[in-house]
Amino acid sequence: MTRSYAVDILRGAALLGIGIVNLPYLAQPLAAQMVLPETILDLVAKGLVSLLCEGKFFVLFSFLFGWGFGVQLASAARAGLPAGPKYRARLIALALFGVAHALLVFPGDILLAYAILGAGLWSLREASPHRLWRIALWMVPLAAMAFGLLGVLDGLSSAMPQGAVDLGGNGYRGSFAAGVAQRLSDWPITLLVVALFNGPLAFGAFCLGLAAQKLGFFDTGKRMQAKLATRLPLLLAIALPANGIYAAAILGYLPAGWPTYLGFAALALGAPALGAVYVLAVLRLAPHLGLLAPVGSMPLTGYIGQGVLAGAVFHGWGLGLFGTLGNAALFGVACLIWLAVTGAAILWQRRWARGPLDAALRATAAGLARSTRRHAG
């Protein structure tokens, strides 16, 4: 089946935002994420990332995951084959890659969460677009509660006795083995953060993506895109104040207690609204963004590749710059890493159709499916 050029471009753009958000957690101790930067430039950079990036791009990526699930279902139906075994094997493979990614590259991995949430999406494969839309809407108040809880936990962390939890990340300054041990130590914390920060909105975006596939959002006629474009003023009216309130909470500009917790919760509205604006903007500019399609066609390679490059720059087995750069510098480094991964994808695609890790995921899933069929037989 022919790939969607527009979807690949969207994925390529989303990788930039994901890299910008994730890099501080790869380049600085967790303790540094719980205090405000000391310089004005770093404070502005942190505020802009909170305002424009945090929460928006994983929602976009999740939307495309749901759309891809719908494409797989439609492809299996056209071929007259059951979609369940192949999809189940792919989720197991994704979970295995997620665990490996969390231990070897980045403990804030989202692949394992995608595998778990993807299992829930299977139960909605025959749901109508209207039902999927309603479920996605219900995820918003659930996400607001989860974000508010993160705000509570953030406040409690400042009162935590020093040394109660290792937040210094010293293992990342040592050998690769020391880094693995540090990631294993950090994983319980990051698993909780991923569950709260990503879980509800990611599942809601899965549902929206599946509904979009059923309604032909990326089809040639683009009727659904035009319909979404008419909602642009409403989306901006929601996105700008909601994300502004969230950024104010992150920067400590709101009073402590309930105002700050509600500021965190505002992201539940701001993230999907601004994510939808980004979808419209990228689709409008798609004819000029063709260079993003190669990296977008190999999203797993791009996602993990950015983390590997970040490790090479910041961790002890590489250049060892861990904890030395502020937020403004990290923004620039994240852009450079994304450019490097995007350029490598362009060169790779001249010879091979799939990215190396995407091909490995596909081969692992195929092997699991064959093994399951043998045991079933």
Characterization of the model:
- By secondary structure, the chain is an all-alpha fold.
- The protein has one domain.
- It is 74% helix and 0% strand.
- The chain has 16 helices and no strands.
- It has helices spanning 5-27, 40-52, 56-79, 84-104, 111-122, 129-158, 176-197, 199-215, 223-229, 232-250, 258-265, 267-285, 293-296, 299-314, 327-349, 356-376.
- Helix 14 crosses helix 15 (327-349).
- The radius of gyration is 20 Å and the shape is globular.
- The two termini are 30 Å apart.
- The mean pLDDT is 93.
Helix fraction by DSSP (H/I, runs of at least 4): over 70%
Q: What about the largest sheet?
A: none
Q: Given the helix and strand composition, which structural class is it? A: mainly alpha
As a whole number of angstroms, the C-alpha radius of gyration is 20 Å
Ranges with pLDDT <50 over ≥5 residues?
A: none
Q: What is the average per-residue confidence, as pLDDT, rounded to a whole number? A: 93
Please tally the β strands and state the result. Answer: 0
Question: What's the quaternary structure here?
Answer: single chain
The general outline is globular
How many H/I helices?
16
Give the topology string: H per helix, E per strand. HHHHHHHHHHHHHHHH
Report how far the terminal alpha carbons are from each other: 30 Å
Number of domains: 1
Amount of beta strand? under 5%
